[in-house]
Structure formats: C-alpha cells, structure tokens
C-alpha cells in the first residue's frame, strides 16, 4: 500500500493544479465568437456556437429545421452573431446568464416609412407578482429593432414610427403587443404562458434530452424542491419526492444509515441499492453501520459526503430501461446528481444559504404508569452486608405506585411513584447549524464555482456531536474552437463523536426497561461513593445504568473524502464530438471505540456486590480505505439526416478499477484512558486486515432516431468484462430499446388536433436487460488468517466458493402514458413495469465440511405501477396553488430458488424472535416467527391447563408450519406523498405528507418491555388476590381450553406477560407484537418570504429569502407503538423490526438565502 500513496498524491495534486489553471481565463476579457459557415439550419448553427461557447439554448424543436443566414464573423459578440443569423427570420432571442431563449414570432409585412419623428420609449416590465422581469425582448413589430430589459426590468427603445407596435416576449410568458402612440413611457405586466418549453432532463452518461422524447421513466428534482427545508442529508432531502423510491432510515442518532431502493427489492443477497453518479463520476454510497441487536454503532452512509446546497438537480433513472448504459452496477437504477456550475450573474456572484434548527423527541413508546419495581405484585428487597434492606429487581411487576416511601438502593427512603417518561426526559434538545457560501460566475469563454459548506450538530444524546466540512470547485474553459476543458474536485471531512450504541447494549434499551419508579436523577452521578456504577437494581446484571453507557463507552469516527474528474472535449465537426475523462473517488475512514473502566478505587464496598467490576480499559481502532478510478472515452454525434429525421449516437468505453481495504485492532489493559498510553500489561487481543480489488472493462453505444419530433426510438448496448467472474463467463452483454410516441404532436401534424383541453399526450414503451457480477473472491477458496490473543491463527472456512459462477441477469419491460390538460394546469405520468432477476449469486446449505456454498439460482419477479400527478387548481395574479402527488405500488415474488431449496433467510441476528426470508411462491420479505400460539379453527387462543397460551406444534413439523404461516411482510402495498404549495404575493408555503400503506413490523421493543412489565399493554393486570396460597394480580387470558370451552382459568399477570413477551431471545410470541406499518406523517413544512427586488435595489443584495422550516413534525396516523419507519440498520431483516430505536424526532428552525 505504501508505494501507491505517492502516486495518489500526484493524481490529486495534478487534478487541483489543472482545475485552478482552467479558471485562469476569468481574469481576462470576455471572449468573442469566431465562426464561418454557409446557409444551414438553425439547429446546426446552434451546435457550432455551442462548440465554442458555454451557452445553453432553449427553443421549440420545430425551429431546428429553420433555414438561417450564412455567417462569417470574427471576434463577434453573441448578440451580433444571433442578430446576423436570425435577421429576417421572425425569431426573437433573449439572453439570461449563459442561456439563450429563442421564440418564433408571427411573420409581419414591413411597414412603409411614415417619415415621422423618432420616438424614444422607456418603461418597465413586471411579472404577475410585481417583480421585475430580466431579459424580456421588446421588438418593434415587423422590424429587427429590439431592446432587452435590465436587472430592474427597465428598457429603452427608439422607434421610427408613432404607429409602431411593441411586442414583449419572454420565455414561459405570453407574448404581449402594445401601441405606445406618441407616449414616451410604456409599462406592462406579463402573465405566465402554460405552453412553456419542453422539459429537459439529464439522462444516462450525463446527456441532456428532452423529456418528451424519452421512452422510459425519469423523474427530475430541482434544487429548490430538494432543499425546501434545508436538510443537510441529500438522502433525507430526497425522501418522498420520487415515485417508486423508498427510503429506510436507521433510527440510530445523528446521520444514521439510509437504504434506498427503487421499485422494490429484487436481490436475494440484499444488494438492492441504486448506483450514484455525481457529475458523471461513480460515487460510492457504502453503508458503514456496525449496528447489531446487542451493540455497535451506525456510522452512516457515505452519500452524506454530498452537500445538498451544491446540487443543481437529481435525475432518478428508475430501472434497467433508463440505466442500461451504466452497466452491471446500475441494475437497481441510478441516482444522477448534477451539481451547480458557474453562470453569468449580476452583482458579485456570491450566494449564502444557512439554516439553524433544533431537534426534540416527539413520540415515544407508551409505558405503563401504575405499577413499580418488584415481582408477583409486591416489592422485592435485598439486604447487603450491613443488613440494610433495599428495593431491587429488574422487573416492574410490583405493587401499585401509590407514593408511599420505600427503602431504595441509595440507602434512603424515596417515594414509590411514577417518575415520568424516561424516553423523553433523558434526551436533550439537539441543535444544528448549516452554512454554505458559494462564489461563481461565467463569461462566454469560461465558468467557475467555488463553494464551502459547514454543518455542525449536537445530537439528542449528551456529548453526541457531528461536524461536516465540504469544499467544491467546478471550473471549465474553452481553449479554442476545437478544445474545451472542464473539471471538478470535491473535498469533505466528517467527524462524529459518541454516537449512541444500538440494541440491548444502548441507552434506549435501558430506558425502555427501567421500572417507572426508578428516578433518572438518581442515576446520573454514578461514580460517587454512595451510588451504583454500571447497574441500578441488584445482583442480576442484565441491564446497565444509561448514564454509565453514555460516558464510559466512547466512540468516534472520522472520514475524509475526495472525488472529482478532469475532462477534455474535442469538437471534430459541428455534428461530432469526442470526450475523454478521468474520474476518481477516494475516502478514508478512521474508527475508534472504547470501554473505560471505573477501577476498584471508585467502587464503594457498600454496593460493590451490585456492580459489575470492569477494572481494565479496552479500545478498538480501525481504518477503511476505498479508491475507485474510472477512465472513459466517448464519441458523440447528432445530425439532421433529412427534413423529418434526426440521428443521435454515441460510442464509448470505460475502465474501472476499485480497491478497498479494512484494518482493525483491539487492545486491552491500557494505562491511561485519556492519552491512550499502554502499560506493560497491555495486550493486543485482535487484529484483522481485509480487503478486495475488482476491475471492470466496458464498451457501450447508443442510437437515437427521431421522426418529426413526435416519434423517437432509442437503442443501447453494453458489454462488460468483470474480474469477479471466471474467465469463461466474465463477458456479458445487455441491450435496451425504448420508443416514445407523442401522439398529440402527431395529430397536430396531420391537421387533426386533439380537443383543446388536451395539451399534451405521449405513450412510451421500453425493454432492457442488465447483468450484475458477484462479490469479489466468490470463485476460489484461499487460506485466511487472523491475529487472536497474540497468535496468528488460520481462519476456519465454512463457505465453499464456486469457480463456475455466472452473472446475474435482470430483464425489464416498461410502458407508460403521459398526459397534460388545460394548458398544463393538470397532468399525470403513469408507468407499469415488470422485471425478472435470475441467476442470482446466493448462499445455500452445503454438505460437510462446508456449511454453505455459492450457486447461481433463484428468480425474483417485480411488478408495479407508478403515478405522478401534478396540478395547479388555483392561479391568479396574486395567488398560486400547486399540488404534486406521487404514488407507487410494487410486489416482489419469489418464483424459484436453488434446486431442492424451499426457503432462505436473510442475514440477521439469530437470537431475534423472527426471521425474514424468501420462500418459493411467497413474497420477498415475508416475516416468520420462531414460535406461534396454538389457535382453534376460529382463530381463538388455546390455553393449557395452567391458563397460559399453548405453543403451536405443527403436527410434529413445526418448521413447515411456520413457513406456511408468515406473520407479515416488510413490503408496503402503496407508497405515496402529497406536496401542496402556495404562493401569495411573495409569501411561500409548502408542505409534504409522506405516506405508507401496508407492510408489517414487529415491535421487539414493545415485546421486551412487555416481558418485564414496563409497556403500556401490561397496565391491565386483573385483580390482586390470593390464589392457591399466593398473592398476586390474576387475570384470565381470552381464549378457549383444549375441549373448546371458554377459558376461565386465572393466571398471574406476570406469568402471562413474561410468557408472550420477547425478553428470552428464542422464546415468546412475536405474532402478539406484529403491527400494521402504515403511516401518514407531515415530513416537511416551510413558510418563507421572498423579498421583492424593488426593496433590494439600493442594497448589495440581489436576492433575499427568509423561511421557517420543519421536518418530521408528527405522525398523523400510525398503528405501531414506536417509529414504523426506523430500524437499527438498513438490512431487509432490520426493516421487519422496531428494536430499541432512537425515539421519533422533530426538527424545526429557520433558514436564510442571500445573494450578492
């Protein structure tokens, strides 16, 4: 590894120098256009201009075939070029920043000269909100005499005729005509035109295409929608805004991991994450969670390294049909992130975005408030060596909490009463501040943008902090008419300290299981002479003091990241372009965790026998390094073949090399817990070094053929050669085809337009196939070693590799219908899809000496629909109401597994009361219990002779019975979001309601709290009485006896709840704690005010917006005792469980956006 670091350093240094050099042209003058061409079409002329300049053109595609004048200019401005090019063509242009808008005007006969005096006319153009419109074109009708409004909407034009008619035109607004006569002042207000230009989206390989010409589903999210509430996490900001995209976010503290799936799970290996592409660079989103049911920490996903304020837009390519060009890594879809670039701006080009938010626990699992510490309806006492009696025990099945004094483990009597909601009282109010400052601008020759972002967080837990720093530089320059260069480098550093421990070892579990009478205030000072240390209830050391866990188990993690690219673009002809790009993505993470003991001297002899004696400190450290290189070459062409046909194509290749390394070590018996100094007795108790390399060589191509702008055919092909497959199977090919038919345009072309209330109508159809290679090192068994207790030992291998593995194949068909009505006031986008994933690399049981082996097997079929609805129900000059709705339904079924295999279970904790798996003929993600209650034909509980529920025996074949009776499924029936937004005279209000209907979740938290008597469902305990010589609370379990008669056998409440509860790993009945995972929550709320530009005219500001923002305000509907949408990690297994999750948290604050 060491010999590679200088090479890496040279790469980064070269990248940084190159990027800085590319920005140098900004210190020169504005460059001009030099171009020579004969008479041609407007589309061809635009491509030649774009080959020299960083201008983006927006225009009606019908204009692309318009004949234009010859050009022969040198060092001319873009305005001069456009004026000569469009002279006499009745096409108006507007230039805003680096965007040129073209619009066809009605041909007019030139007016005869009136020989009247010239008239100088001035005025101002405003929009419907009385905001100035910048870049409106004012044309004297029938002439080429024109003017453009300035920053304040002002203009001046000189006419040579008092009868002149002025045309006001602006992209997206209705053209307006006014006759000033002899007036020297004409002010006007322009209204929005529903027939705006067609939407342009980013597609595979970063190619921008008109959305109406695409034959597959792509959903585009702009930055203003993404950053409505200033969420510092890009995944959090994206949640609920894309149909068919599902987020599963771990409830594990600051920046918990998030699993993203598009159109459901389809992999038996739980590898269902989409590919991230940031500005054309493959961006690794590894989940770095170490969380488990018994401890560990969730360190978040690496997508957190992206600053959302740097994002211009996100395009989600939802299936293989859209993502086939990205190859095997894109089988689960692609999230395409396009970051902001410099553009021509008024003022200094400086933008500041900041937010300040506070977080609070809003909803917790309900706890019972009636009974306290004890057992069998009575307090439990212990006596220490000084014969002082103390209340003890970890159970909450004691007597009623009536306020009488009881001798406590503190040595003094305290009131025996409910102490409040510990799950709320324990946590503090979190605080976060998020700032981004960006400096950017552009000339005709170059562009640049530099941003610096900082995010500081104090979490809900004491001493829980997270800080993140982002630096992003994006530059580009045109060297000459043949060559342009552009590049990007993004640097980030994230550091977190004292993340909460998950599972039974963490504070949430301790707080959930502490009896209601135990006071939190008595637990805080656990190191003094009279207080316990690790425990609080007696000699049974099942639980820990939550404050002990918080302060004695410390952890930290720090990640540095650098990613970016450098690209050269060569214009071979006005219709042909060649590009070469080198891209890299590197991150390094350092981890540390420790258990700091109290030492013998801190343990009071009076309570020593109650406390676990941990007298040595131990520490674990780890480091993870990830480096990916991509080198790509691409040839792109675009030609008008005839008046009605257009051909676009590209050919390319890519070389990918990835290296990943993990090192970790553990040491015990340290001398200093503050400086990590080891004494002579320190011992290295573990050491590991793991890693992998993989390579992929690829060739790809695509073809786009369109006819009359209403019929488009796209064909793609790609071949990958993977290093993780055997040589005889390492090459795999996959194609795709898509067809788009805009039948509203077709009907207009044949002079039979659709009814006027139908604005747009399009049908699309696509089919695709992609491959996926297996994990590295799945082919051959090799010897592995580990360092344990100072000795290097071989690792016993239990998995048999397979040298005949083949690539996984995913085939997909998709059909869709897009409609717009009433001048775009109402529309929808509907998609039906079907996909089949086969040849999955999966582990199955094997014969001795192996426990499992890799095989190609299994077939998962996904079917579903997606619907996006958008509407503007109300639109006046002062008030606009917009509504967007996303809906998605997916069903994943298991059609086959390996030969002789009926079921597999996904990786998860074997001590949990449930399993999540796949059974042939069932739905992917079915939940199976370890035990079930026996029921009669009517579903009633059958009790035993003691009055307790009987366990089901399955007629001697319990495993088969459990497989035939899943207790739930993790898949929702419907995902939905509703986003209303209102704009009233610059006051903006938007909200997003996130909804999930269907699916199941097992509340293990509730089950464990039930077994010890702290959950709210244990408040019913029947009647306190003596029975068979024992006094206790007795109840009758609803159900029947073996003979079918109604149950009347009393049983102690403690016996019943401890029997059905889930405290004993494999015991208990999970079916009692299965809940409908449906919910409706208010995910986002923002209320803002955009200051009018008229108020900013005499200030340095070019824009100013102030907003109140809030996230995760509340659940409007849910059926679970805890958070129905948060597990302790991102696996499919964890999705089935609510297990000691951090309580649901609401966030609120304010944000500010300033431009200079």
Care to describe what's here?
It is a single chain. The model is unreliable at 1-31, 108-115, 599-615 and 673-678 (pLDDT under 50). The two termini are 47 Å apart. The chain has a 22-stranded antiparallel beta barrel, surrounded by four helices. Strands 17-24-25-20-21 form a five-stranded mixed β-sheet. It has a four-stranded antiparallel β-sheet with strand order 10-9-12-13, with no helix packed on it. A hairpin with a 3-residue loop joins strand 31 and strand 32 (446-458). Among the domains are: 32-104, Phage tail protein beta-alpha-beta fold; 119-189, Immunoglobulin-like (Sandwich), CATH 2.60.40.4130; 370-417 and 510-543, no CATH class. Helix 8 (507-513) runs antiparallel to helix 9 and helix 12 (1004-1012) runs antiparallel to helix 13 (1053-1060). The protein is mostly beta strands and 1156 residues long. It is globular, with a radius of gyration of 34 Å. The protein has 15 helices and 64 strands. Helices cover 9% and strands 47% of the residues.
Low-pLDDT stretches are: 1-31, 108-115, 599-615, 673-678
- Report on the biggest sheet: 22 strands, antiparallel, barrel
Radius of gyration over all CA atoms, rounded: 34 Å
Q: Could you report the average pLDDT, rounded to the nearest whole number?
A: 83
Q: Total helix count? A: 15
> What is the approximate shape?
globular
């Amino acid at each position: 590894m060491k010999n590679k670091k200088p090479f890496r350093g040279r790469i980064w240094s070269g990248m940084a120098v190159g990027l800085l050099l590319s920005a140098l042209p900004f210190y020169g003058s504005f460059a001009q256009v030099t171009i020579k061409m004969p008479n041609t079409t407007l589309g061809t002329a635009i491509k030649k201009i774009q080959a020299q300049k960083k201008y983006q053109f927006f225009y009606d595609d019908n204009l692309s075939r318009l004949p234009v004048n010859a050009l022969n200019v040198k060092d001319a401005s873009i305005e001069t070029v456009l004026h000569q090019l469009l002279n006499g063509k009745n096409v108006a242009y507007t230039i805003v920043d680096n965007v040129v808008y073209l619009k066809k005007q009605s041909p007019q006969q030139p007016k005869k000269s009136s020989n009247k005096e010239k008239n100088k006319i001035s005025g101002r153009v405003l929009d419907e909100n009385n905001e100035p419109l910048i870049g409106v074109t004012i044309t004297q009708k029938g002439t080429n005499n024109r003017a453009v409004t300035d920053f304040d909407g002002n203009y001046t034009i000189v006419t040579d005729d008092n009868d002149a008619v002025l045309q006001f035109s602006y992209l997206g607004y209705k053209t307006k005509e006014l006759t000033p006569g002899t007036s020297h002042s004409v002010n006007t207000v322009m209204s929005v035109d529903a027939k705006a230009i067609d939407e342009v989206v980013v597609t595979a390989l970063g190619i921008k295409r008109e959305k109406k010409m695409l034959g597959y589903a792509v959903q585009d999210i702009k930055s203003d929608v993404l950053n409505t509430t200033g969420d510092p996490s890009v995944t959090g900001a994206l949640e609920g805004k894309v149909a068919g995209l599902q987020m599963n976010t771990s409830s594990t503290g600051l920046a918990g991991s998030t699993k993203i799936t598009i159109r459901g799970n389809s992999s038996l290996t739980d590898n269902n994450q989409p590919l991230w592409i940031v500005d054309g660079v493959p961006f690794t989103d590894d989940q770095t969670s170490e969380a488990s049911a018994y401890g560990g920490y969730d360190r978040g996903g690496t997508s957190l390294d992206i600053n959302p304020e740097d994002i211009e837009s996100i395009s989600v390519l939802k299936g293989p049909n859209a993502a086939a060009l990205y190859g095997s890594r894109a089988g689960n879809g692609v999230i395409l992130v396009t970051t902001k670039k410099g553009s021509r701006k008024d003022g200094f080009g400086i933008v500041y975005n900041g937010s300040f938010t506070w977080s609070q626990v809003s909803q917790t699992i309900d706890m019972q408030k009636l009974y306290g510490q004890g057992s069998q309806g009575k307090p439990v006492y212990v006596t220490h060596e000084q014969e002082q009696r103390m209340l003890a025990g970890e159970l909450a099945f004691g007597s009623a909490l009536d306020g009488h004094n009881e001798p406590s483990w503190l040595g003094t009597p305290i009131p025996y009463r409910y102490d409040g909601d510990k799950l709320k009282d324990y946590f503090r109010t979190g605080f976060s501040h998020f700032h981004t400052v960006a400096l950017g601008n552009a000339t005709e020759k170059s562009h640049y943008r530099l941003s610096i972002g900082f995010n500081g967080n104090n979490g809900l837990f004491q001493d829980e902090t997270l800080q993140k720093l982002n630096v992003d530089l994006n530059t580009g320059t045109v060297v000459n008419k043949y060559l342009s260069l552009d590049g990007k480098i993004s640097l980030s550093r994230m550091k977190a300290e004292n993340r909460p421990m998950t599972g039974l070892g963490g504070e949430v579990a301790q707080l959930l299981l502490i009896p209601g009478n135990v006071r939190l205030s008595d637990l805080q000072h656990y190191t003094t002479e009279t207080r316990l240390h690790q425990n609080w209830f007696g000699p049974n050391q099942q639980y820990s003091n939550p404050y002990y866990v918080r302060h004695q188990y410390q952890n930290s993690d720090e990640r540095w990241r650098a990613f970016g690219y450098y690209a050269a673009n060569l214009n071979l002809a006005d219709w042909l372009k060649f590009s070469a790009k080198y891209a890299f993505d590197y991150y390094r993470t350092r981890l540390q965790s420790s258990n700091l003991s109290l030492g013998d001297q801190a343990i009071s002899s009076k309570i020593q026998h109650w406390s676990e004696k941990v007298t040595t400190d131990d520490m674990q450290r780890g480091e993870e390094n990830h480096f990916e290189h991509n080198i790509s070459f691409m040839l792109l062409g675009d030609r008008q073949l005839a008046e009605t046909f257009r051909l676009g194509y590209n050919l390319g290749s890519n070389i990918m090399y990835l290296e990943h390394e993990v090192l970790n070590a553990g040491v015990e018996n340290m001398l200093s817990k503050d400086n990590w100094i080891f004494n002579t007795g320190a011992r290295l108790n573990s050491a590991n070094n793991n890693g992998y390399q993989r390579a992929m060589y690829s060739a790809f191509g695509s073809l786009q053929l369109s006819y009359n702008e209403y019929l488009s055919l796209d064909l793609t092909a790609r071949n990958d050669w993977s290093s993780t497959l055997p040589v005889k199977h390492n090459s795999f090919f996959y194609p795709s085809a898509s067809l788009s038919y805009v039948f509203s345009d077709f009907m207009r072309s044949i002079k039979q337009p659709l009814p006027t209330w139908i604005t747009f109508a399009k049908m699309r159809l696509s089919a695709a196939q992609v491959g996926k290679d297996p994990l590295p090192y799945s082919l051959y068994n090799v010897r592995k070693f580990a360092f344990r207790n100072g000795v290097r030992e071989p690792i016993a291998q239990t998995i048999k590799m397979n040298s005949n593995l083949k690539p996984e194949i995913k085939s997909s068909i998709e059909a869709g219908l897009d409609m717009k009505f009433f001048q775009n006031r109402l529309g929808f986008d509907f998609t039906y899809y079907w996909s089949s994933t086969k040849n999955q690399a999966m582990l199955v049981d094997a014969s001795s000496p192996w426990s499992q082996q890799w095989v190609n097997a299994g077939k998962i079929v996904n079917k579903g629909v997606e619907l996006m609805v958008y509407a503007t129900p109300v639109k006046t000059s002062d008030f606009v109401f917009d509504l967007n709705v996303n809906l998605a339904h997916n069903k994943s079924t298991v059609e086959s597994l390996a030969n002789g295999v009926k079921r597999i279970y996904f990786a998860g904790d074997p001590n949990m009361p449930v399993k999540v798996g796949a059974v042939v003929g069932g739905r992917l993600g079915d939940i199976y219990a370890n035990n079930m209650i026996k029921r009669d034909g009517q579903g009633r509980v059958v009790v035993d002779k003691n009055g307790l529920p009987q366990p089901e025996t399955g007629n001697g074949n319990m495993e088969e019975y459990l497989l035939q009776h899943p207790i739930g499924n993790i898949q929702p029936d419907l995902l939905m979001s509703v986003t209303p937004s209102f704009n009233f005279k610059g006051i903006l209000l938007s909200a997003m309601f996130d909804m999930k209907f269907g699916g199941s979740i097992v509340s293990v938290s509730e089950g464990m709290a039930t077994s010890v008597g702290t959950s709210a469902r244990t408040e019913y305990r029947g009647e306190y009485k003596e029975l068979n010589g024992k006094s206790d609370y007795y109840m009758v379990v609803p159900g029947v006896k073996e003979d079918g008669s109604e149950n009347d056998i009393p049983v102690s409440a403690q016996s019943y709840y401890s029997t059905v509860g889930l405290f004993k790993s494999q015991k208990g009945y999970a079916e009692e704690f299965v809940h409908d995972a449906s919910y409706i929550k208010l995910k986002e709320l923002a209320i803002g005010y955009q200051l009018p530009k008229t108020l900013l005219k005499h200030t340095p500001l070019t824009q100013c917006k102030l907003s109140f923002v809030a996230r995760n305000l509340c659940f409007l509907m849910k059926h679970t005792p805890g958070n129905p949408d948060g597990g302790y990690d991102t696996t499919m297994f964890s999705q089935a469980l609510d297990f000691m999750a951090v309580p649901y948290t609401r966030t609120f604050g304010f944000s500010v956006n300033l431009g200079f």
